[in-house]
DNA sequence: GCTACGTTTAACAAGATAGTTAAATGAAAA
DNA sequence: TTTTCATTTAACTATCTTGTTAAACGTAGC
């Protein structure tokens, strides 16, 4: 299939943890390749190419200012990605409802169970 | 980098238009590989492998029922993807605010312009 | 046990991706 | 103009992805 569409490019860009880390860093303000490379375990050319990928997905823009070239977060394409995913919200909300209903049922049926609340609060880890 | 984490797997799965089409189809109900292949321009083995990718990202589950094996949408991982993207909402909302402010400014400055509303309503195409 | 049907796996090829080091580019500073 | 510094591109390698066709697998029905 096409695979050259905007949405595919954005999701593909987000599929790499290094690129997500770069976007997270840029959320704190513009930065140069050198600055972005510092905390990462890969070479500067590798980061430079990640930036190229992000730029081609329109997730960043870059502007040269003297010797430096700063990368700037461009979040607009994330809106399209969010919108696409949002159409499935009812499915995960639904599932959650069913899960909660089930757990509530289990809980009411075993009246003497200890600390049932632990199970009713699914963990939800965050990543950079 | 790792690239084997759950979030990366989900975004990578969503980066392919064929797989997004499959998820969209499954939103209408469970389906077999044969059914999913019918509208697609690729072979059944190719679709079968897309399903494998979706299953490994935990975006679908599959159950054999006699001769058939139905795929079922599992939307829960989409919640994590949505949550990740949501943290950037302020950036695109911000941009939108600036755009709207700019357009309002332009509009008020050219009092006799025709149909200015067309420009204040950015188009926002949806995809399958 | 055969046969048929739905599905997956194997084997292959083409192209994309992600990293490396070394060389080239572009702009500032001396 | 030569040097220096920030960054990108080139060349290469290894691995992953996505498609194909042909073969294998699993279950149902005769």
Biggest sheet record of chain A = 2 strands, antiparallel
Number of strands of chain A: 2
CATH architectural arrangement of the domain at 6-79 in chain A: Orthogonal Bundle
Order of H and E elements of chain A: HHHHEEHHH
Distance between the termini of chain A: 31 Å
* Quaternary: homodimer
CATH superfamily of the domain at 6-79 in chain A: Winged helix-like DNA-binding domain superfamily/Winged helix DNA-binding domain
CATH topology of the domain at 6-79 in chain A: Arc Repressor Mutant, subunit A
Order of strands across the main sheet of chain A: 1-2
The secondary structure category of chain A is mainly alpha
Biggest chain-to-chain interface with counts: A-B, 41 and 42 residues
Would you write up a description of this structure?
With 128 residues, the first copy, chain A, is mainly alpha-helical. Chain A has a domain at 6-79: Arc Repressor Mutant, subunit A (Orthogonal Bundle), CATH 1.10.10.10. Chain A is built from seven helices and two strands. Chain A has helices at residues 6-14, 17-26, 33-37, 44-56, 76-86, 89-109, 117-120; strands at 60-65, 68-73. Chain A is elongated. Mean pLDDT of chain A is 82; it is low at 111-128. The A-B interface holds A 1-3, 5, 7-9, 11-12, 14-18, 20, 23, 27, 41-42, 73-76, 78-89, 91-92, 95, 124, 126-127 and B 1-3, 5, 7-9, 11-12, 14-18, 20, 23, 27, 41-42, 73-76, 78-89, 91-92, 94-95, 124, 126-127. The structure holds a DNA duplex (30 and 30 nucleotides).
């Amino acid at each position: 299939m096409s695979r050259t569409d905007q949405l595919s490019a954005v999701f593909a860009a987000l599929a790499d943890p290094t690129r997500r880390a770069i976007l997270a860093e840029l959320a704190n303000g513009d930065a140069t390749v050198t600055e972005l490379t510092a905390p990462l375990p890969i070479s500067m050319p590798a980061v430079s190419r990640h930036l190229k990928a992000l730029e081609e997905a329109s997730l960043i823009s870059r502007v040269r200012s003297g010797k430096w070239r700063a990368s700037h977060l461009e979040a607009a394409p994330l809106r399209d990605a969010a919108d696409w995913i949002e159409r499935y919200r009812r499915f995960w909300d639904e599932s959650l409802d069913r899960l909660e209903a089930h757990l509530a049922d289990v809980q009411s049926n075993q009246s003497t169970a200890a600390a049932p609340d632990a199970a009713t609060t699914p963990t939800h880890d965050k990543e950079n």
